[in-house]
């Protein structure tokens, strides 16, 4: 099959906000998480130094802020934020619900060597 489809509501929720979609979708090189953030919710601060994963946070509804290192980055519906592996990041939700799609992937190998398969364990936080 050349595609797979899953609805985040059909995937078991992890913590109080996240649904890891990579495994149900059968992803091999990208992590995908849907995060419906309740009012006042904050993710755990974390980085991806050890696994060298860059991330993109796409806000699909609501408004929130993403703390990246020492900078507070306000995000509105439709905004996408790229975050380097070494940066500490944390979602900080405001007084209303927001929803993010979080995408992570290992560093791109431009040499053409495929290496080992990437172990997808979900996005922290």
TrEMBL record:
It comes from the Archaea. InterPro entries: Cupin_2, GPI/OXD, RmlC-like_jellyroll, RmlC_Cupin_sf. One of its GO terms (molecular function) is metal ion binding. Transmembrane segments: none annotated. Coiled coil: none annotated. Residues 36-102 form the Cupin type-2 domain. Keywords: Metal-binding. This is Cupin domain-containing protein. The lineage of its organism: Archaea, Methanobacteriati, Methanobacteriota, Stenosarchaea group, Halobacteria.
């Amino acid at each position: 099959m050349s595609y797979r489809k899953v609805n985040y509501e059909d995937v078991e929720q992890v913590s109080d906000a996240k649904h890891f979609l990579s495994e149900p979708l059968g992803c091999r090189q990208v992590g995908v998480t849907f995060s419906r953030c309740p009012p006042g919710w904050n993710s755990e601060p974390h980085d991806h130094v050890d696994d060298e994963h860059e991330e993109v946070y796409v806000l699909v509804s609501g408004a929130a802020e993403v703390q990246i290192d020492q900078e507070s980055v306000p995000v509105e519906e439709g905004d996408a934020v790229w975050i380097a592996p070494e940066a500490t990041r944390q979602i900080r939700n405001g007084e209303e619900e927001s929803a993010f799609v979080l995408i992570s992937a290992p560093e791109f190998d431009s040499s053409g060597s495929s290496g080992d398969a990437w172990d997808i364990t979900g996005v922290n936080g």
